[in-house]
Structures are given as structure tokens and as C-alpha cells.
Amino acid sequence: PAVAPVLPVAAPATQAAAAAELTRPYVSARSHTPEALLEALDAHQGNQTRAAQALGLTLRQFSYRLRKAGLR
């Protein structure tokens, strides 16, 4: 039996809009002062993951900012 080719189907507009909402907004590397980084670390007993979340950053972004500020 002949098999019909499978054609790609475009994602519904609602899925595209939902995906756009999930993207993290750009945050400048200079948007958090070294003091803000240290305050967040202190507030979360040195837990970098929680300090990063409190500042709206990923752990990777937070670690990068610590290194750039010479704090790590």
C-alpha cells in the first residue's frame, strides 16, 4: 500500500505566544551591584541558587556576576 507523505504543520499561534512568554528578559550584567549580590547571598545564608532566584537570575548568571565583581 502507498503511504501518504507527512507534511509539517505550523504550530498554532497560541503555542508561539506561550513560548514567547517563557523567554527570560535580557538583564544587563551591570544591573546588579556587588553589594546587591552580597546582600542576596547574606539573606539566603550563602545559598547561591536561592540568592540568584531572589535577584531574578539563573545560577550561571549569578556566578558570572560574582566572578566579574571579584567576589569569587
Task: Report on this structure.
This protein is an all-alpha fold. The chain has a domain at 30-72: Homeodomain-like (Arc Repressor Mutant, subunit A, Orthogonal Bundle). Helix content is 51%, strand content 0%. The protein has helices spanning 13-22, 34-43, 48-54, 59-68. Helix 2 (34-43) crosses helix 3 (48-54) and helix 3 packs across helix 4 (59-68). The longest helix has 10 residues, at 13-22. The N and C termini lie far apart (66 Å). The relative contact order is 0.13. The mean pLDDT is 83.
List keywords for this structure.
72 residues, mainly alpha, Arc Repressor Mutant, subunit A, 0% strand
Quick overview:
With 72 residues, the protein is mostly helical. It has helices spanning 13-22, 34-43, 48-54, 59-68.
**CATH architecture assignment name of the domain at 30-72:** Orthogonal Bundle
Total helices: the number is 4
CATH topology of the domain at 30-72: Arc Repressor Mutant, subunit A
Helix content range of the residues, please? 40-55%
Give the CA-CA distance, first to last residue.
66 Å
CATH class of the domain at 30-72: Mainly Alpha
The proportion of strand residues reads under 5%
Going by helix content, strand content and strand pairing, the class is mainly alpha
Shape: elongated
SSE pattern: HHHH
Outline the secondary-structure elements.
Elements: H1 13-22, H2 34-43, H3 48-54, H4 59-68
Helix pairs in contact: 2-3, 3-4
